[in-house]
Design a protein that fits this description.
single chain; about 220 residues; mainly beta; Tumour Suppressor Smad4; six-stranded antiparallel β-sheet; 2 helices
């Protein structure tokens, strides 16, 4: 089984790492296996211990903390689809058979290139609105029918941890939705089809169901 960690944000810093058995160090230090530049990232921010059966994330007493699926963690057993947040970076963990074609197309960046990509992302955010396309989710049923949720964050979570849970991520080419956590019978659906840990691009008019939420994706 192949375990991978993919940087999905900032959008200009996307790349994928294959996690080998042992300890994978994440941080700002030059000898980190996954080096994330930026003052908000601690020198020794986090580590992942990898064995044949499990991958476990540990926060290394970082200054700004580590989150998984929006929740702060000190230690967390990673499951396919988990989204790790470290400062401005979002990293998605996937376990399973490797998609060789997709991996072959992955852009591998050096630490210096990552730093430039992060700075470019910051400049882009400062020079434009956080959601120039006005993308949003509109509730179509229940007590919140008609209300809208503006997709002005890099990552927006939907649902509850106790039931179906999904995340909508903003990338340079649009918005994507992905199932978060262990796959079960309570997966979120798009246009009636259950989604999984593979990101699915949203198109205007897509109907989304997450637990008791019924929404429609809208974009100008």
């Amino acid at each position: 089984m192949t375990r991978r960690l993919s940087i999905t944000a900032p959008a200009t810093a996307q790349q994928t790492f294959v996690l080998a058995a042992g300890i994978v160090r994440i941080g700002r230090h030059p000898d980190s296996h996954i080096r994330l530049p930026g003052k908000a990232v601690s020198t020794r921010h986090a580590r992942i211990t990898v064995d044949e059966q499990h991958c476990t994330l540990h926060d290394c007493a970082s200054t700004n903390g580590t989150r998984v699926n929006g929740q702060p963690v000190q230690q967390h057993a990673l499951r396919s689809g988990d989204v790790i947040e470290i400062a401005a970076f979002r990293l998605e963990y996937h376990a399973g058979d490797e998609d060789e074609d997709a991996f072959a197309k992955t852009q591998m960046l050096s630490a210096a290139e990552l730093e430039r990509a992060l700075q470019a992302e910051i400049r882009q955010r400062r020079s434009s609105s956080s959601n120039p396309g006005g993308a949003r989710l509109r509730h179509t049923g229940g007590a919140r029918a008609g209300q809208t949720l503006l997709l002005d964050k890099t990552l927006t979570t939907l649902g509850k941890p106790s039931g179906a849970l999904a995340a909508v991520t903003r990338r340079t080419d649009g918005f994507y939705i992905v199932h978060v956590g262990a796959l079960s019978t309570h997966r979120a659906r798009v246009n009636g089809q259950a989604i999984d840990a593979r990101a699915r691009k949203l198109l205007p008019g897509d109907q989304i169901e997450v637990a008791d939420l019924h929404l429609i994706f809208e974009a100008e």
